[in-house]
Amino acid sequence: MSAVRAVVLDGVLTDPGAAALGIDDPGVRWGEGLFETMRAEAGRVPLLARHLARMRASARALGLGEGPGAGAERDVAVAVAACGAPRQRVRLTWTGRPTLLVEAVPHTPADPWGAAAVALPGTWWPEGEIAAHKTLSYAGPRLAARRARHRGASEALLLDARGRLGEASTGSVFCEVPGGLATPPLEGILPGVARAVVIEEAAPRAGIPVEVRHLEEPEWRSAREIVLTNALRGVVPVLALDGAPVGGGPPGPLARRLAAAWTEVTGLPVG
After folding, report:
1. pTM of the prediction?
2. pLDDT digits (tens, 9 = 90+) for 203-250
3. Where, residue-wise, is CATH 3.20.10.10 in the chain?
4. Which architecture characterizes domain 115-266 according to CATH?
5. End-to-end CA gap in the chain
């Protein structure tokens, strides 16, 4: 079976060209909804339970109901099977109507492994409540990503007004510090699924201590390694920042150890 884009809308496998939400759906009219993006490998979505738990917690926190019901797991399985690709990007979109949309498309890992990033001051607000949820109101991260592309990079590092590091435009951030890694606290940033896996499972397996604390600009600027994490690509080393190499340029030893541990605990390759 050849790989195709597959769409399941409210429990029904639907022609992607015909799938649509009504103009009065709160996700369309107000951006009141949530989404999750994850990786399927060989027909499995290993982190699905974590993604659904985060989506349901956000729905309750934002007063949007209980989130997707028990049928969500079935809808994901149907979409993944219909897509047929060995590696897939799976997206869940949920609105308070309720509407549940599942999309599965083939995923091609990035080559080479790694990313170039730029730093964007004033794009992270630690007091921001909404940024702690993956809502359909996603203009901020998309604008940051566009600004990064305009500067020849693939990722943006979001900073507060003081230059402290928050998160990336599409993931969480870990920096090399003496003795291990450090990542910012969950203040106005998304509680990343991959971030949790790294802190709770992958980093301990790799023997890498992780601190959760604020990172001031002189510290993260001088880090020999910066690593991004998200559930689609896993562990991604930052090879250049604002046009200058990070460390020696190639992925460093912490990134390599963390990537190997990520694959061991999740069954998902990086990239």
Report:
1. 0.96
2. 999 999 999 999 999 999 999 999 999 999 999 999 999 999 999 889
3. 115-266
4. Alpha-Beta Barrel (3.20)
5. 24
